[in-house]
Amino acid sequence: MKTLVTGGAGFIGSHIVRWLRKTNCEVVVADNLRTGKRTNLPDNVPLYEVDIRDQAGLADLFAAERPQAVVHQAAMANVRESMEDPITYAEVNIIGTLHLLELVKDYNCSKFIFASTGGAVYGEGRLPIESATEGVRGARLAPSPPPLPFTEDSPPQPKDNYGANKLSCEHYIELYHQNYGLPYVILRYANVYGPRQDVNGEAGVVAIFSGAMLADQATFITGDGGQQRDFVYVDDVARANILALKGDLTGTYNVGTGLPTDVNTLYRLLADLTGYGRKPGHLPRPTGEVRATWLDCSKAGKELGWEAEVDLREGLRRTVEWAKMAAATA
Ligand code: NAD
User: Fold this and answer.
1) Which protein residue has the closest C-alpha to ligand 1 atom 13?
2) Are 222 and 283 within 8 A, CB to CB?
3) Per-residue pLDDT tens over the stretch 101-143
4) Can you give the pTM of this predicted structure?
5) Residue 226 included in any domain
């Protein structure tokens, strides 16, 4: 099955491309190289340098390549930037996705896979211990956030424009399914980390810490470091995309480890792996930052046959080894 990977020259997209090549799938990539790099791709994979806002450019690509499936990773994915430039974010993340959906409909593609985000779509969650305060007689409680871990049925409550963009795309995709029968899989990723990650991406904390630690530079933790995230290794995420392409399922799936890790723990693991001895500085916690988020991924286990296989320490070890190699060849 010939598969178009948008954003295939980026961090996650380039891992998906390599997995697809391993399964002998024919792959083409569309990427404007905003954060992606040609060198992230194997030499024999055709790269169309096209912006997904360019409807005519995408139409030319479809006419030339006639892909049978689309794995849509291209996006602008920086939360802070999305608040500063909401228009460009909507143009790339929403209009760009609609351009693709129109072509996927016109060319009758057999599958549309969409990279969504658990981190930004669900918003704030309630820690298990906080449940104890529920239902106090007579208490006037503010609307309570849904309990953690988030399941696919937790109500989405994005707190930023990037999360709103992704949720909006999810609604459009569902409508293309209802109105035109488009088979789709939406994958809501947790915090993805691993080789080739850009420090400016959605969840670049591993890349930022490991880069600074290996260069023996100062490191900074925002807030008290108690914020909890679900860190999932990029190979596991790429494998979820491959499984999503293969099956004939349509649906939305969380893709994470199901385990929370606080930033202080992540910091200690990376300091240990890189031999970094300096103490971190502290920066103020960004306004509106979610305190805790992690994902229940049992639906992906049952229906896609997917679960994360690489544990955090092993994934960080592989990432640090790659960063050392990249620094040595730079
Ligand atoms: P990335 O920046 O490395 O990859 C995005 C790719 O899209 C890049 O190659 C970039 O050049 C390309 N791109 C950006 N704007 C484009 C445009 N207008 N036209 C064509 N190409 C464009 O980021 P990533 O971390 O690999 O993210 C991949 C996808 O996964 C994104 O959709 C992101 O929202 C989603 N996601 C990432 C994470 C994470 O933890 N990294 C978590 C949840 C969801």
Assistant:
1) 74
2) yes
3) 999 999 999 999 999 999 999 999 998 765 544 444 544 455 6
4) 0.95
5) no
Atom of ligand 1 nearest to the CA of 53: 18
Looking at the structure of the chain, the number of domains it has is 1
Whether 54 is in the pocket of ligand 1, judged by its Cβ within 6 Å, is: no
Task: Decide whether any atom of ligand 1 lies within 6 Å of the 327 Cβ.
Answer: no
Q: Give the CATH number for residue 163.
A: 3.40.50.720
- Do the domain assignments include residue 93? yes
Distance 153 CA to ligand 1 centre (A): 25
DSSP state of 47: E
Which tokens in the block code for residue 201?
A: 């991406």
Helix runs in 109-160, H state only: 118-122
User: Is position 320 within any domain?
Assistant: no
Q: To the nearest 10°, the Cα dihedral for 286, 290, 292, 298?
A: -140
Q: Which residues span the domain enclosing 136?
A: 3-193+233-257+296-310
Ligand 1 atom closest to the Cα of residue 203 is: 40
